[in-house]
Amino acid sequence: MRVRTAISDDIPGIDALLARSYPRLLAADYPPSVLFTALPLISRAQPALVTTAAVGHVRHVASDPERLRRGIARRLLEHVIAKARAAGLTRLDCLSTRTAVPFYEAMGFGVVAPRDIPLAPAITFPAIETTRSLA
Which pTM was predicted? Predict the structure, then answer.
């Protein structure tokens, strides 16, 4: 497996991955009412995050539900951590889904607090703020 930084040509593939991943993986940790309103908003790549560096903030780390537990997300996050260190960052922040908290904790992130993320007027998504030192 080769890990590389995404480019704008990857956006359709990222959209497809998020659309496959989030509905299945988040169902155990979020009520259907939250998923009904949030999934259309969070299951799409944000082009600004793909085409510019979102330095110090981890977003949208997802694996295909058919390929879980194979180390893919770990490799991706290790790539991000290495790039962040090379850029001189001393910390990474992440707004994790409830589902992904154990993964981020295994990768050295600590839970800070629950956060409601505003997605649209009257639509919020419950997330968990996490952080990791790179020192």
Answer: 0.90
